Amino acid sequence: MNNYANRVNLVCFAGLGREYALAFGQRGAAVIVNDLGGDIKGGGRSSAAADKVVEEIRAKGGKAVANYDSVEDGEKLIQTAILRDRSFARTSDVDWDLIHRVHLRGSFLVSRAAWNHMKNQKFGRIIMTSSAAGIYGNFGQANYSAAKLGLLGLSNTLAIEGQKYNIHCNTIAPTAGSRLTETVMPPDLVQSLRAEYVAPLVLWLCHDACPENGGLFEVGAGWIGKLRWERSLGRIVRQKNESMTPEAVRDAWSEICDFTDASRPSSIQESLQTLVEVLSRVEDERGIRANPTGATAGTNPSSAVGQTLPEMSFSYTHMNCILYALGVGMSTREPDHLKFLYEGHQDFSCLPTFGVIPALSAMTGLGSVPDLNIDFTRLLHGEQYLEMFRALPTSGTLTSRGSVADVLDKGSGMVILLDVHTYSEGELVCYNQFSVFIVGAGGFGGKRTSQKAVTAAPPDRAPDAVIVDQTSRDQVTLNTLTAPLFTSLGFKSPILHGLCSFGFAARHVLKQYAANDVSRFKSIKVRFVKPVYPGQSLQTEMWKEANRIHIQCKVKETGDVVLSGAYIDLHTDASTGGLQSDLVFAEIGRRIRDAGQELVKKVNAVFGWEISRDGRTVREWTMDLKTGGGSLRSGASKADVIFTVSDEDFMEVVKGKLNPQKAFFSGKLKVRGNIMLSQKLEAVLKDYAKL
């Protein structure tokens, strides 16, 4: 992560700034180092501190110049941090004004001076330095706390205004020892909270590849955490044509302050939406409710769980399959696309993601479910899971049966998980789970999370493969022909629905890792984040982890993520053959299905397995004995302990020919994580293996 060359970084130097300057200089940036060289109360000045850092950078081959100007000279890009502590009663106008000039006004002037340069070059990274005193308050620091929290408000607004110019603004609240805090911290604590434990976060937030914008992070001692606002569901305490009284506030106080099922607004629009809903509810005389976005009075959406929907039929011909392939970007200009576009091709096939289309009609059945009372104009498609059990016929009639898997209360809205199983002549072809968000339908007191909704973050490394495809101006028309349920209502111009990006990403993975062999496709899960406009380029980033391909899809021109938390599971290439260990894991899965809840009580852990052949991992398993009724699934997930072993050695242990301890000490069995949890495996494996 060294591509800071050709960047000019201003480092406003005071304590932490030295580490930022050295780190940027080491990675090729040209650095402007400023330090007034004042004392901790803001008095005096000296060039020595800035000069010393410049010398250090240059001695290591870096580029740096010093600057000693005042913070008031915003055009010279200066920011200085000063401690000037006074209890509130003793805070003078000078104490207040000096701190605000240095911290808040100084940051404003610095940022304003750089802003147009950043806009013109379509790139900028601004890091505001707030403080725990600003976030939480601190005795004797009223002036400092107010200025530091003011920086957060400034940062949030710059993040919004700068986003379209690729200017990102984030805020850090560091705890670090420096010359400014050495008089108020014990020496050993100053040493433990070294500034170099903060600098790596600043470098990452300034990196071209970092997507973070508008974030707030606490950092210190090698630890980093992200903060966010949280808001209770609250309580309406007035009724139409009646006065609002302090007594009503008093009587509802416990509900007003109850953070159970709290919401987390992230924009002023989300914040104001609640007030709009409040006005609507009061005007409709729906009275006092726990949440302004709540469901209709007298209904209980949670009771809809398990409800079945009317059976739907979907008839199609090969033309539908071809139209779908065109709609997700395939072209006859590409020879390897012909098998999906020409019905006379010897291997003519239907893209696996077409399996979503027959199931879409089942969603309309949600309108008939009692207690849901869905307004379809407020429905957003949030996530999608598709699993294939056999290749889709290229024509025929499919039957879909839907049921409500779960209903979640998100405060500002309601999430419905809809399961749809699709059959061809009585044989299961595919399974879909739609996750839909109904804006303004929350607040009914339901649960917030579900074990039936799972996504997976990509590995923390550069993608293993990237494919970019430009969408055509006609893409939205082609895509709408096969997925008419979703439209572009509410947008100034037509958009490509998330299911179009879904199809693009899936075919990219099929091309990269399965040679367009649809029989290799097992399942896909995505979270829809943002829309794509026709003509923009879709960039699919891929990380291969055994048979699971983690994916993230972006708009190349803007960097906006449109699909996140996504992955595709592939079946093992038939040319590699099956593994002996597959039979053992199949039996383990059966045992978990039969006695999962009992095992979860005994074990309370998640185990991962990496099975190798010829020195490379060819199969991964996740044995979850911590949540729900337990599960065994193919693929890697976060685990408490992970075992790595070859297929051959695994079977030797299972058969009792290889002692597990000897396997471990000889390196044949590797263990990562909490090794003591391996003892609990006996509860699962004692009847089938000796691990």
From TrEMBL:
Superkingdom, taxonomy of origin: Eukaryota
| Organism expressing this protein natively | Cyprinus carpio (Common carp)
Keyword Transferase part of the UniProt annotation: no
According to its UniProt record, in which pathway does this protein act?
A: Lipid metabolism; fatty acid beta-oxidation
Cross-referenced SUPFAM superfamilies? NAD(P)-binding Rossmann-fold domains, SCP-like, Thioesterase/thiol ester dehydrase-isomerase
Q: Tell me if Calcium is a UniProt keyword of this record.
A: no
Task: Give any GO molecular function from the UniProt entry.
Answer: oxidoreductase activity
Q: Which Pfam families match?
A: adh_short (PF00106), MaoC_dehydratas (PF01575), MFE-2_hydrat-2_N (PF22622), SCP2 (PF02036)
Q: Which residues belong to any copy of the MaoC-like domain? A: 490-563
Family of the protein in this entry = Belongs to the short-chain dehydrogenases/reductases (SDR) family.
Q: Where is the SCP2 domain?
A: 587-686
This protein is called Hydroxysteroid (17-beta) dehydrogenase 4
